[in-house]
TrEMBL record:
Residues 62-126 form the Tyrosine specific protein phosphatases domain. This is protein-tyrosine-phosphatase. It comes from the Eukaryota. Residues 2-147 form the Tyrosine-protein phosphatase domain. It holds the Pfam family DSPc. GO terms for molecular function: protein tyrosine phosphatase activity; protein tyrosine/serine/threonine phosphatase activity.
Length: 227
């Protein structure tokens, strides 16, 4: 089917073809459409609907995390207004399912996991299967506690850091880390002491050569006085 309803919720997941089936959209009381793909369709296609687009490709290293809070807010606004929401990508399999998982996690962070949320979605649309990279990001989002602000969270910045480094290594270039917060530039989670954190880093690229847990603090030996 072009789109399927998530059990117990006025949320539908589908492919891009679902947008063209106006009668089905009307029958499902769709008022909000969330597109999760790099779309190239005229605005009049979404004329009578509230529409929001997330420009992402279906690849594992695409940054889906940064878009989750806006997507969740958009979905909730449609439901609060008494309508139904269609979340679609190209095939209704990976990107749209990932965003739907994020919404379910945000609503029940202490009850659901990314996998259990996916199983709920599959009850309505069995073909849903986000790529491994998106599932990893959803796991990080869940570890954060599904916050309204993702980009200021230490876990997000750590993930962004590793993503940038891995991309740089693959391309054989130095990392471009101007937008990344480092360990000495961000608040630490669960820090129990005010002791200064020491790490050995490259002065140019700021890459950590020796993390704190691998460093041995040098203690100056006391000189023993002869008795």
């Amino acid at each position: 089917m072009a789109m399927n309803r998530i059990p117990g919720r006025n949320i539908y997941v589908g492919g891009v073809i679902a947008v063209k089936n106006k009668s089905a959209l009307s029958k499902a009381n769709i008022t909000h459409i969330l597109s999760v793909l790099r779309i190239n369709q005229p605005d009049e296609t979404f004329g009578p609907f509230h529409h929001h687009c997330i420009d992402v490709d279906d690849v594992g290293d695409e940054n889906l995390l940064e878009h989750i809070p806006t997507a969740v807010k958009f979905i909730q606004s449609g439901l609060d207004a008494g309508g139904s929401v269609l979340i679609h990508c190209a095939m209704g399999k990976s990107r749209s399912a990932a965003i739907c998982i994020a919404y379910l996690l945000h609503r029940q962070p202490s009850v659901l996991t990314p996998q259990s949320a996916l199983e709920i979605i599959r009850q309505g649309r069995p073909l849903c299967e986000p790529n491994d990279g998106f599932m990893e990001q959803l796991s990080i989002y869940h570890q954060m506690g599904c916050p309204d602000n993702v980009t200021d969270h230490p876990l997000y910045n750590r993930w962004l850091y590793h993503r940038e480094v891995e991309g740089s290594v693959a391309c054989g270039r130095a990392p471009e880390l101007n937008s990344v917060l480092f360990e000495d530039e961000q608040p630490h989670m669960h820090q129990e002491s005010t002791e200064r954190v020491t790490e050995i880093k490259c002065r140019k690229c700021r890459l950590v050569f020796c993390p704190q847990h691998s460093a041995i603090r040098r203690v100056k030996a006391k000189t023993l006085q002869p008795s």
